[in-house]
Amino acid sequence: MTDGIPSTQPTDAAFWLAEEIVLAIGAAVILGLVIQLTRRGAWRSAFVPRAVPEWGDARSIRTEALTIEHAVLPFMVYLTVFAAARLAYPTQGPAPQDGAIDTIPIWYTATAQAVTQLLTLAVTAMLVGRSLGWSWRRWGLHLDQPGRDLAWAAIAYLASWPLIWGAAQATVWLIQLVQPDFTPTEHLAIGYLADARTPGWVIGMIVVGTVVLAPIMEEFYFRGVIQNLTARGTGSTWAGIVLSAIAFGLIHGELQNRPALMLFGVVLGYTYARRRSLLAAIVLHAIFNLKTLLFFFLFRPTLS
Fold it and tell me: Model-level pTM?
């Protein structure tokens, strides 16, 4: 899984200025939403996701055909393919160069990750498509209102980023209270991008995987499958949102990012439920990852 929140603590003024601008815009969006909801008296309805099937609604989500195998099989494919690829690489040979991130070459690990994402996505889509009679609309995958989905995703990102960023910073602070020598670990993909030995074509593969493949694969699985299954099993849309968000956060490797990514998972789940659109969740996820990469490429020369 390739979501990440920058874990380093850069001191570059340009970086922090850009980050503060995004945070300020997010705060302004939050204030605007609070004012709008207060004027309309719509606070109660705002927190009622609409993913519960409404059979006469053309945009209703109807996933009663999903079963536990839709959750288990893609997850097993993800673990098995990536683990097999790692184990298949011969470990004999000279010791890695100083500063190497891994004994396995970057190009090999990046390729294995991309193949794993593609296969997991294909298996998830095949299983769900077959069960739903290839009616993707029943899953919330449609292009009925792409403009509104895009606008929702952009607003949701801006409004949630101050909270997600704050959660990440608070988590690091709390961990360091208990373990003063704790140093946040950077996401593996960012480490590969920062490595001068990474070939250009591998950088391109990582970017595509982060901005395109990962959002599609993870939203298909966590929102399209896990959220729907847990919501139906518990009889609560909010339970589905929260449980899938917890799973989403736990699957990512960096300890200090997990609470923030769980919060982001709640935002993604709410977006899917409220818009009844996987496209909206996928675009929101892509914006989140794209911003991380843009800041890395824009400020890398001054943060090294």
Answer: 0.89
Would you say 194 and 300 are in contact if contact means Cβ atoms under 8 Å apart? yes
On whether the CB atoms of residues 274 and 50 are closer than 8 A, the answer is: yes
- pLDDT over 60 (residue 57): no
Burial class (CB in 10 A: 0-12, 13-18, 19+), 227: buried
Work out the percent of the chain whose per-residue pLDDT is above 90: 62
The residues, any chain, with a CB within 8 Å of residue 150's CB and separated by 6 or more, are: 280, 283
Here the contacts of 41-46 (C-beta below 8 Å, separation 24 or greater) are none
- How confident is the model at residue 191, as a pLDDT? 85
Nearest to 282 by CA among 226, 212, 228: 212
CB 78 within 8 A of CB 108: no
Rg (CA), the chain: 20
Q: Tell me which residue has tokens 């994402």.
A: 117
Task: Give the total residue count for the chain.
Answer: 304
More confident residue, 91 or 198: 198
Average pLDDT over residues 211-227: 96
